[in-house]
Amino acid sequence: MSINGQGQLLHWLRGVKTLALTCRQWGDTGKGKFVDVLAEIWADVIFRGTGGGNAGHTIVINGKKYIFHLIPSGILHDSFGKINGIGRGVAADPYILCEELGILDREGMTYNNLMIALNAKLVLPCHLVEDRVRESNSDSGKIGTTGRGIGPLYKDHVGRIGLVVNDLLNKDIFVVKLRRNLKEKVRTLRTYDSEVVRKIMQHDHLEKGAYYNAKDIFNEDAIVEKYMAYGKRLRDMIQDTDAFLKNKVVGRMKLLLEGAQGDLLSVDEGTYPYVTSSDPTVPGLARGAGISEKAVDRVLGIVKAFYMTRVGSGPFPTEFGGRKSEDWCATEGVDKAREAALYPDADVNSRSPLAQGIGVRKAGDEYGATTSRPRRTGWLDLQLLRYAIGKSGPHVIFTKLDVLNMCRTIKICESYEYAGPKYRHGQKTLLPGDILNVAIPDSHVLQYCRPIYKCFPGWECDTAGATSVSDLPSKLRRIIDFVSKSAGVDPRILSIGADRNETIFV
Ligand code: IMP
Questions:
Q1: Phi, psi angles (nearest 5°) of residue 495
Q2: Which terminus in the chain has less CB density within 10 A, N or C?
């Protein structure tokens, strides 16, 4: 199926061999839709390079919706010979991989060309336990992680006690490495409440307690047995993907790098420490896929417009309802159904900022794909966008433009007023009342940034059926122009709905 302006898109990509698709915000910008389109009309090979079970993209198979976490969104094009790969930088959880393969099997979908890097980082049960135990303990400083073991896994990697996917193919080596790893993990976990650890080990992803042993915390034999079974299941897919990309793909075939999370969640470039533990920016993605950043010919960054979302803790200057919203979204048991029942009238025009945030969440269906948590919502923040664009380049896709169709006033955050105590930031001293035009991604600073907005009248009509920019209401076009000029972005694609037909190439 073609998309509107498909010819223009292909023209724009003429001569491009490697394209990276990443997010300029805190993730959840709907990369899956564009990976799916590009996998069909352009790419030969689609590779993931960062993140793991923390990511989530919706895949529709035979009319049913599934959330996939690890297998690239291009998998639905496997039967057309498209190659999908999980690169060396990915946190590969074999439990999740096997679950996703099971869905493909049940739905009669092929994955003959799926590759898993032999040096992808292997998620172990202890990573999930450590992640969840830390998050349950307020002294550790809550990040609001997805609980998929991401931080502990990458910590083990740089701490040189991690395992890789290839270890699933060699039992003796697996056992030696696992033992060494668990020795350190048990030492750490013994400093936490043993009852909390025991409860966490009952989780589905931890085989409902089968890995638990009251004396040693972990039942090593049970882990070895299960992981060897995973190895058998995944054996044919485990390959030297670095060599494959280097020798067969880079500069020869059309390679799409599928990002996960977003620039502002990067452990190196994001709003540290409220970030994930990998680097979802283009350099991180390229390295994680197994290629040089220099091989990337073009980058497309996704930007939700004209609102933003964030999951978990951390500063969010433009959040509707500020602290109240952050606390509400972090409340145990709050999900889509509960919110709808408690706030039936909340909509994008609600007068109370908290209710307006809930209204935007409902309109955009902003509930976590991995955790079902409500995503925190706020107005588009040009300072953070300028910061991300400065790192990753100007070409963007504006998504979810339809969500604010009925909104009477659109606010865009143009600058911040710093309202915190005197703070030294390198050679600069920030004082209360200072105006900032580009975000300083230091969480200490961001938490004190008060947004200064420019207001625009909303377009207040449906955008359905628009197939070109000129079909869009003039009030909407005016805001797109303003954001593009003030943030220095060059929008290439506009998305006005989940369907691939609801896509406009600029
Ligand atoms: P972790 O990646 O599970 O360690 O979580 C660290 C932070 O990144 C938390 O605030 C998560 O909510 C956030 N995060 C991780 N993955 C995603 C994602 O795919 N979308 C949005 N937020 C994410």
A1: -115, 125
A2: N
Q: In the chain, which residues fall in CATH 3.40.440.10?
A: 17-117+239-302
Q: Three-state SS string across 216-242, please?
A: CEECHHHHHHHHHHHHHHHHHHEECHH
The single-letter code of the amino acid at 86 is I
Q: Is the CB of 4 under 6 A from ligand 1?
A: no
Architecture of the 17-117+239-302 domain: 3-Layer(aba) Sandwich (3.40)
Give, for 189, the enclosing helix (H) or strand (E). helix 171-189
The ligand 1 atom at the shortest distance from the C-alpha of residue 312 is 10
Task: Give the pair of three-digit tokens for residue 67.
Answer: 């959330």
Any atom of ligand 1 within 6 Å of the Cβ of 148 = yes
Mutate which of 23, 54, 272 to test ligand 1's pocket (most atoms within 8 Å of Cβ)? 54
Task: Give pLDDT < 70 ranges for the chain.
Answer: 1-4, 138, 140
Could you tell me where the DSSP H helices lie in 49-169?
94-106, 125-136, 150-158
CB 311 less than 6 A from any atom of ligand 1: yes
**Can you give the three-state secondary structure of 35-61, one letter per residue?**
HHHHHHHCCCEEEECCCCCCCCEEEEE
What is this structure's pTM? 0.96
Are 21 and 492 a contacting pair, CB within 8 Å? no
Q: Is 276 in the pocket of ligand 1 (CB under 6 A)?
A: yes
At residue 281, the pLDDT reads 97
Residue 54 beta carbon below 6 angstroms from any ligand 1 atom: yes
What confidence tens digit (pLDDT) does each residue in 38-90 have?
999 999 999 999 999 999 888 777 788 888 999 999 999 999 999 999 999 99
36 has catalytic annotation: no
For 103, other C-beta atoms within 10 Å of its C-beta total 16
Residue nearest to atom 21 of ligand 1 (CA): 27
11, 36, 57, 471: which one is catalytic?
Answer: 57
CATH number for domain 122-234, candidates 3.40.190.10, 3.40.50.450, 1.10.300.10, 1.10.1040.10: 1.10.300.10
Helix (H) or strand (E) holding 336: helix 336-342
pLDDT at res. 8: 87
What pLDDT is recorded for position 4? Answer: 67
